[in-house]
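Human: Here is a favour to ask of a fellow structure person. Comparing notes only helps if you start from a blank page. Give me a protein, with the fold worked out from its sequence. Please set it down just below, with no commentary around it:

Assistant:
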Amino acid sequence: MGTGCGGRVWLCGVRSKVVRVGVDVLAWLATLTGAAGIALHFSQSSSRLLVLVAAGAPYLMSSALVGAVAFAAVRRWIGAAVAIVVVAAAVWTQTPLYTGDSGDSGDGPAVRVMQANLLFDGADPRALVDEVRARNIVLLTVNELTPAGVEDLGRAGLDQLLPHRYLSPGRTATGTGIWSSYPLSETVEFDGFVLNQLSATAAIPDVGPVTVYAFHPVPPVYGTHVWADELSRLREILDRSPASRPAIVGGDFNATYDHAQYRSMLSGRFGDAAEQSGAGHLVTYPTDKRWPPLVGIDHILVAGGRAVATETVGLPGADHRALVARIHLNRERK
């Protein structure tokens, strides 16, 4: 009778041992990769490599599941237990995005907000205007707004839908803008940033004054120290936001939920709309590649209210998906 090893039992044993060692190595590498993803989630490092890799932390974390399965397959129960602990820790870091925030529920009317990066003049202006109309958007924040983009959006009918605006267009990525259904006042352009950062106050009926911010810090590839510094200074701006009124922030933050520098903005009165509504990972970038978008760097933040639904929307010609949130703001206290 054959043994399957050419009659050599010892050869079967050697092959089996090699396979087990190979599986062990794979399992430990996968588990350690998952642990590295967790470490990056909490890292405050300004190292360019670590900041860029942290954007993909959830993908790294998921490899720990592979480690757990591999350990179990070869009955390495201690390794399996370690991998399961790593999986549990990874799930704990991501769970807030899926469970929703039970905090401030917002007792006022719902407003629909959109954040869009236009890729200079790349985004189809009519497609954007059609989305604003179809979704009853009342506040729109945009990044990478050029003077030509302002004209194109006007010709496509945006100013008829959202007649109030505060814009600071610029060359390539510098331009930023706010369009609104409601009158805008107290307009501010913040100095000292590479790209344009804006705020205005919208007078929303049955709510009162609402501070609206349009942010666009530089990407980390520009310089991670500059990126981290701009995120820190934007947080300081939000910390100075009047606590007596609601606020909404839209922007391409060039940072994901897994960047601790971004999450520091959520440690005060502001919350991430995707987290508040339990929308999960909403990937927005890039949309101009052969592969689908991988990371969520566009965000809407809310204070004095709560997002109840958040989703992404495709924009032909842009390299980001737009973000749309339905937000219940607190009513004006009289």
